[in-house]
Amino acid sequence: MIRVKRQPRLPPSGLTTTACLEQIEAATKLYRLRRNWSLKTSLTKYNNPTVKTALEAMFHGKCAYCESIYTRVGPMDVEHYRPKGGVVIEGSVEAPGYYWLAASWDNLLPSCRDCNRNRRHLLLDGSKEVAGKKNQFPISNTGPRRRWHTAKRWKAGIEKEENPLLLNPCNDFPEKHLMFDDAGNVLPTQSRTGRESVKGKETIRVCALFRPNLIQARRDMNKRHRSQVDAAADALGEFDAQPAQNAARTNYADELRSLTKMRDDEAEYALMARQLIDPALGTFAKGIRRHRAQLDIRMTNGARNLIDRFVVAYASPPEPPTAGELAARLRAIETRWRRR
């Protein structure tokens, strides 16, 4: 999962049709005005071609949760971040769910079926487990779950008062919560004290990101990433030895371009790629800086801008503080101690 900017900001035309709005209005009357929560109403008009096209373009044909290219495994599901029909509370599904968000553009994500639905998966130890998001939407225990139809003073956006534990790629920074090992496993990140990210842990559980076929796919991709890092390192060595050679320069620029492409937003498993490739680009930064002018000939704009960021981050040492800055820091430290 990578952070994605929701585009376009305005909802696709399919979410503003009369039929779609009428379904939301009917659900509101059924659940909130009549308080008949056991009945079900149809909420299907959100699932139309304009929505699918917009989601596919925004996420580059990848599942919002596992980053698999879903066209390889089946059609895309238009997934509700907050489930519309019912929500799992203390182990059982309670209806209704967040029905008023059924056609909300900010609540829709593209998902593969393995992440979105309850499906039986064969685990590595030979056991079988039914897993998948479906009606799950865990929140923190620090506040109540916001149910529009039960709120005494309901208002638009009341659900934003919740503290979700499921990562949203359009709102959260997944790189702060998820990390990967060389075997293709995804793990919650840990703080300096060893505390695991709760959001990372819950997202792995809810979306079944431990699926064996997914682990294998990430493991295979990790091998390709490492192979490309090695190829770029070898090409840098040749270029350092013979910077005037056109062939060495061309080869190094091509290897760098291939490496940066693997961590682009469009790439499959881009977050895992960045955790491996970005530090490697940092080690290349000084070599890139030495031969910046020659590489400009072969680098695309996107790759060049990325390399520039790493040169600044890794190869440009920070300026030492002046005597005045050091004195100011010491005065600030003394002031804090006196206040104690």
Can you give a write-up of this model?
- By secondary structure, the protein is mainly alpha-helical.
- The chain has 2 domains: 13-210, no CATH class; 214-315.
- 42% of the residues lie in helices and 8% in strands.
- It has 10 helices and 8 strands.
- The chain has a two-stranded antiparallel sheet with strand order 1-4. A two-stranded antiparallel sheet has the order 2-3. Strands 5-6 form a two-stranded antiparallel ribbon.
- β5 and β6 form a beta hairpin.
- α5 (212-241) packs antiparallel against α6, α5 runs parallel beside α7 (270-290) and α7 (270-290) crosses α9.
- The longest helix is centred in the middle third of the chain and has 30 residues, at 212-241.
- Mean pLDDT is 81; it is low at 314-318.
Count of DSSP strands: 8
What's the rounded overall pLDDT mean? 81
Radius of gyration equals: 25 Å
How many helices in DSSP terms?
Answer: 10
Low-pLDDT parts are 314-318
The sequence of SSEs as H and E is HHEEEEHEEEEHHHHHHH
Beta-strand content estimate: 5-15%
In quaternary terms, these chains amount to: single chain
Kindly list the characteristics that best describe this protein.
globular; single chain; 8 strands; mainly alpha; 340 residues; two-stranded antiparallel sheet
